[in-house]
Design goal:
With about 210 residues, the protein is mainly beta. It has 2 domains: about 150 residues, Elongation Factor Tu (Ef-tu), domain 3 (Beta Barrel), CATH 2.40.30; about 45 residues, no CATH class. It has a 6-stranded antiparallel β-barrel. A hairpin with a 4-residue loop joins strand 10 and strand 11. It is extended, with a radius of gyration of 23 Å. About 20% of the residues are buried.
């Protein structure tokens, strides 16, 4: 079973013996508890549900606590639950999944929620170019310009790029290389950046592209 729920710690650098500097993102990955194993016979599909981050029991509802205490599991109160699709689960409910399920050099996909930017204009949101500052357009430099035509189509087409809410999107960065595995401190380092702000919850799973 390869998959982890983690919390983004921040970015740093790894310096190799030959002087090559690699920017990496540190993730507090696990330990995660197996809270449920789904099978095709019972649920119609195969998956493993993991839980992460222990909290005070009052932070969870009665149903959430009952899910973690069912059938004598006696798992701790866990804030975050997430399912990972697997072909043949090799774990059972109650097991722990540690950061050492991944090894240095492996490729992973990291899923998270991007930073929220609030309401933004077209230049920041869609990388529009500003208009000219001359010919009486000094107050229109950051305006989007014409949105459509009065005759054809006579309306705004769906998906028109305009000002609006930016960020807080579900983003997956694919094929990131694992650069650090620290089992003692439950730290996983991946090359490059991952979605979200510091402290954001991310989900790590093997790369679907299978790159090297």
């Amino acid at each position: 079973m390869k998959g982890l729920i983690g919390k983004k710690v921040g970015m740093t650098q790894l310096i190799a013996s030959n002087g090559v500097v690699t920017p990496v993102t540190l993730i507090q990955a696990g330990p995660c508890f197996v809270t449920q194993v789904r099978t095709p016979e019972k649920d119609g599909y195969s998956a493993v549900q993991l839980g992460f981050e222990e909290v005070h029991p009052k932070r969870l509802t009665g149903g959430e606590l009952g899910h973690l205490k069912r059938e004598g599991l006696n798992l701790p109160p866990l804030r975050h639950l997430h399912e990972f699709r697997v072909d043949s689960p090799d774990v059972k409910a109650g097991d722990q999944v540690q950061v050492d399920v991944f090894a240095i050099g492996e490729r992973v996909d990291v899923l998270g929620i991007s930073k929220g930017k609030g309401f933004q204009g077209g230049i920041k949101r869609h990388n529009f170019r500003r208009q000219n500052k001359t010919h009486g357009a000094s107050d229109r430099t950051r305006a989007p310009g014409a949105s459509s035509s009065n005759t054809t189509p006579g309306r705004l087409r769906k998906g028109k790029r305009m000002a609006g809410h930016m960020g807080m999107d579900r983003v997956t960065l694919a094929n990131l290389k694992v650069a650090l595995v620290d089992a003692e401190r439950n730290l996983l380092g991946v090359s490059g950046s991952v979605p979200g702000a510091t402290g954001a919850i991310v989900y790590i799973k093997p790369s679907r592209k299978g790159g090297k």
